[in-house]
Amino acid sequence: MTSHIVWPEKYLPGTTDNFVSNEMFVKGITAKQVWFYLNKITKWESYYDHVGEITPPASGPTLDKGDTFSFSTIGFPPLQSEVWESVPPSPTTPGRLAWRAWHDGDANSMIDMYHAWIVEDTEWGVVRILTQESQIGKPAAQLSKTRPNRMVNEHQEWLEGLVKFTLAHSK
Fold first, then answer.
1. What percent of the chain shows pLDDT beyond 90?
2. Is the pTM of this model over 0.85?
3. 3-state DSSP call for residue 154?
4. Does domain 15-169 have CATH number 3.30.530.20?
5. 61, 55 in Cβ contact below 8 A?
6. What is the CB neighbour count within 10 angstroms for residue 151?
7. pLDDT band, residue 1 (cuts 50/70/90)
């Protein structure tokens, strides 16, 4: 049985201006190993080229529920962010990380998004990593029409970078 994202009503897939989903199943690493690099925001730039200007939470480099941080990505100005869910994986529960990120601009630049991750060990011995994002705003609507879909491709790079980095540093 695989787990699913718990969506706040405002961000339900299909009801926003853009929604993307990426998933990988990987052998040779565990959910706990992946979580270490995903949840430590200061590691993101080590495996994802399209993130920068990271300001970690005041409490440190890991993301805990209620933490605030900021970062820039794929041409957006720095996004203010708040962690809404942060549950490390265990043998019986999936790891869950989710944050709301936003930029309060004018009607043409305002964006509001919810980005969620699930990291879990499967019963058949591989790790499953799912990342999904739901976006609201004119920039999101424009991104939804790009072909190839830029957000799908960027999140795939993030996912593949996380996997490659985890595999290289977990030996």
1. 89
2. yes
3. helix
4. yes
5. no
6. 20
7. low
What pLDDT, in 10s, does the model give residues 79-91? Answer: 999 999 999 999 8
Q: What is the dihedral of CA 70, 71, 77, 80, to 10 degrees?
A: -20
Q: For the sheet containing 18-26, what is the strand order?
A: 18-26, 127-136, 111-121, 95-103, 79-87, 68-73, 51-55
- The Cα–Cα gap between 104 and 145 comes to 22
Type of residue found at 23: E
Per-residue pLDDT band at 48 (split at 50, 70, 90): very high
Residue 145: φ, ψ to 5°: -100, -5
Q: Is 99 exposed, middle or buried (0-12, 13-18, 19+ CB in 10 A)?
A: buried
Instruction: Give the H or E element holding residue 54.
Output: strand 51-55
Do residues 22 and 42 lie in contact, with contact meaning Cβ atoms separated by under 8 Å?
A: no
Give the end-to-end CA distance of the chain in Å, rounded to a whole number. 28
- What is the pLDDT at residue 2? 75
146 Cβ contact list (under 8 Å, min separation 6): none
CA-to-CA separations, 120 to 43, 88, 155, in angstroms, rounded = 20, 10, 18
